[in-house]
User: Fold this.
Amino acid sequence: MTLSLNVPQLETNRLILRVPGAADMPAMLAFLGEDRAEFYGGPMNEHDAWHKFSAYVGQWMLRGYGMYSAVLKDSGDTVGMAGPFHPSHFDEPEMSWLLTDAKFEGRGLAAEACQAVIAHLFSTLGWANVVSYIDKANHGSRKLAERLGAQLDTDRPSPVPNCDSYRHYPQGAVA
Amino acid sequence: MTPHLADTPVLETDRLTLRAIGLQDVDASVVYLQDPRTVYMGGPWSAADAFDHLCSLVGHWAIQGFGLFAICHKGTDVAIGDCGLLRQGGYSEIELGWGIWSAELEGQGYVREAAEAVRVYAYRTLGLSTLVSYIDPDNARSIALAKRLGCSLDTDARLPDLPEWDGTLTYRHPGPEALA
Assistant:
């Protein structure tokens, strides 16, 4: 038995974006146990991974927003997560993303998920902008931030060590 | 409107109301999780980690369909402690866990009253057939409570396979038949 949250899902060409839950847990625990999770506090043991993933889920209820799980429409695979992550030591929510497995890289899935979530933050929730904190060594995420149109924000440095702030703005807005 | 879980259970005892831990508990819970009294449950946490930990406990309900209840005096919505069912990473079965959020409220039987109600809920409503409580060997108060609840030490139980769990005691609760 699981319980579901009353949050509308988002949809793109290939993906359903929905509040994460039990169905996403195997893929997320596997991801957090691997070296690929190095920019997300990993690799970590099953106990810590469970706490990290369940905290992503619980943030929805404590903040009212959070990271969506991105599920492929055709296979039902949880390919990743994308959305505003907001632990208590961040002054503002951070637009974060990840792909659960290397086999989902290089297909534009993270971009597709992020574009839909960011559009939702601006058009439906009315956010004026949103930041992403990206590790200087995380070249893949840096490239994606640039592709999404985010701009380096040197005025509001990242609270996360070794990370730069990239700020997303609604299309047409002047930074 | 903040997203919320529909249909989480509410349990009533003589003195207490138990409802799912959630948004209304952030302030009190984050204070409690920084209290040295949480040393036997993985704490104390920093303020930042305490919020993350509460997120995890709230997310537990969505993932497992059960979780920790906030213990409130009947007629109030202010949590004085927590009690509930946990199955977290590495667990091979479901735990009945508890905590009272301030030392002044210890010794009044609140946790026992809550734990008995959660146990009945676990057996009758969820249909569980057994429950354990994982207790640090130095946590004399919780060991005493487990004994008052009729638990017995289970040296064959499987603990999460992690170094920090070494030495943790497993107290097994009386089953549904024994409590019927």
Notes: Residues 46-63 of chain A form the longest helix (18 residues).
